[in-house]
């Protein structure tokens, strides 16, 4: 039996890894897991019900981005959306060139798609970031060549929370006639994003990062952007992403997007306050600590800190014993290197880097959770430093 089951109350501070599905989302999905099970491509009534539910979710999601419903394509999540955007744009425009620009701190769904393309003969420029994890728009500008076909830079970083200058990069991409994709898996439903305001051509999101179900996401593809099919088969998603639709999942994502949009301003304000409270409390109560990422251009719920002379993995185990779920960096890196590549790229000194803890909040997080987490951090760091 794990320590969590023993103790009862769990303080969940790993919302960047995944979020708890909300009750309303589950309720919206339930009928589609039971009586409304029809395949959306069939002719009878059951199918029509599913079809309508699908298009309602598409419309809701489009609305949150100020996009057209026809620009939203459902996928199995963030990784698929990223793979589709990067690989298929690269393939479609290979006659123009085989050069792609990205950053060194992207999610592995982007980095490994780029690595794969390199094996196929593409060239990829991986841009450095500054000490705050920020990509410089000037560096993007300088990296653009005649044969560049795609720029892919994330909206908000999953480990250190930095919000990238997506608007400026998008403007440069437009000016230079290069397509621009952004991995907004962490940012969508956390901060307002309008594709009328932001010059982005493609955007990835994933439902389980905003209190929706796992295994469903979408790719926004601006009207007029030529992109080949990612999954070949039937005519679902205009033939671009074949396979019987995950109706319940899509309905759940639509509901989660609707709830996030409705509570956006208040949620952002509340989470930012709580986040700053957590950061300040740590900095005041625990010596020899660094805050990673940008102080203000930051996802509302992200706190990433590095404690000097502490082994991060040991600290996470001790936190877990107190019922606190935190993370060392990205959930996708478990078991790999001790120090995350993102933390390395920010240039965090080694005696700090190994003691990195990420705590990510959500609308379910309360002030008492923060107080308990800091108490546990303080006590366990004292133990480890002794
Ligand atoms: C979680 C995450 C992904 C992957 O999304 P999945 O839906 O889990 O495949 C991609 N990019 C970022 C920035 C993420 O945080």
From TrEMBL:
Cofactor(s) named in the record: pyridoxal 5'-phosphate
Top-tier EC class: transferase
Origin: domain of life: Bacteria
Single GO MF annotation: iron-sulfur cluster binding
Keywords linked to the UniProt accession: Iron, Iron-sulfur, Metal-binding, Pyridoxal phosphate, Transferase
Every Aminotransferase class V domain range: 11-372
E.C. designation(s): 2.8.1.7
PROSITE patterns found in the cross-reference section: AA_TRANSFER_CLASS_5
Catalytic activity field: (sulfur carrier)-H + L-cysteine = (sulfur carrier)-SH + L-alanine
NCBIfam families, A to Z: PRK02948.1
Family the entry assigns: Belongs to the class-V pyridoxal-phosphate-dependent aminotransferase family. NifS/IscS subfamily.
The protein's name in its UniProt record: cysteine desulfurase
Source organism: Roseburia intestinalis L1-82
Gene: iscS_2
